[in-house]
Amino acid sequence: MANHKSAIKRARQTVKRSARNVARQSSLRTTLKKFHAAVEAGQQEEVDKLLVVAISEYDRASQKGTCHPNKAARAKSSLTRAARKQAPAESAS
After folding, report:
1. Per-residue pLDDT tens over the stretch 23-33
2. How far are the Cα atoms of 47, 53, 54, 61, 88 from residue 27, in angstroms, in the given order?
């Protein structure tokens, strides 16, 4: 148990930040599940919408310190590749 006033405050702040981080990661995981389900189902419009949402959530998570910026960059790249692989090929004229 914290004994100093500053340590008590730090403990309070840690609890609040941890709750925020858990919520942010849970939201991110939910978005990723929806994205991968849309990719599997072949719903291109839904994939495009969810790609934007997922990239935004990864940016926010890395900015707030919930996940490492390099992990966010790798994940965004992977999601983009999955979405583009799913997209119908443009006719080359």
Report:
1. 999 999 999 99
2. 17, 11, 10, 10, 29
